[in-house]
Design a protein that fits this description.
mainly alpha, Cytochrome Bc1 Complex, Chain D, domain 2, elongated, binds heme C, electron transfer activity, Cyt_c-like_dom, signal, heme
Length: about 100
């Protein structure tokens, strides 16, 4: 009995962790190719994003769902293709991604 519970946990935990891990989503969707954690380039750093969207989770969500333009001025065209990606994320994955983006 104990063994099978452990086995179930081993099978399911990694998949659960994967789906709800904002950092994984950030990496697998290629966001890190342009956004560094610390340094602003042509794309704002995660630090800048965290600061600009401090207590503005809803604004960030609207942005990532393509409902509203971003708060940070830059090159909006570059992000367009990626909004098409974040727009399709599930509610849960999007929340996890937002939590990660705002954790810097
Ligand atoms: C090809 C480079 C590139 C990639 C890849 C990229 N971004 Fe961006 N991102 C930018 C640029 C340039 C800006 C600044 C212009 C703008 O605000 O649209 C930006 C802005 C942003 C902003 C701030 C928006 C604002 O203006 O307030 C967020 C949040 C963001 N990106 C999230 C993401 C996420 C999440 C991903 C992955 C799904 C991603 N980006 C992938 C280039 C990129």
């Amino acid at each position: 009995m104990k063994k099978s519970v452990l086995l179930m946990a081993l099978i399911f935990l990694p998949t659960l962790g994967f789906a709800s891990n904002g950092e994984e989503i950030f990496k697998t969707k290629g966001c890190g190719g342009c956004h560094s954690k610390e340094y602003d380039s042509f794309a704002p750093s995660l630090k800048t994003i965290s600061k600009s969207y401090y207590k503005k989770n809803q604004e960030l969500k609207d942005y990532l769902q393509g409902k509203k333009p971003g708060l940070i001025k830059g090159e909006p065209k570059t992000m367009k293709g990626f909004i098409n990606i974040t727009k399709k994320l599930s509610e849960k994955d999007l929340s996890a991604l937002i939590e990660y983006l705002l954790s810097f």
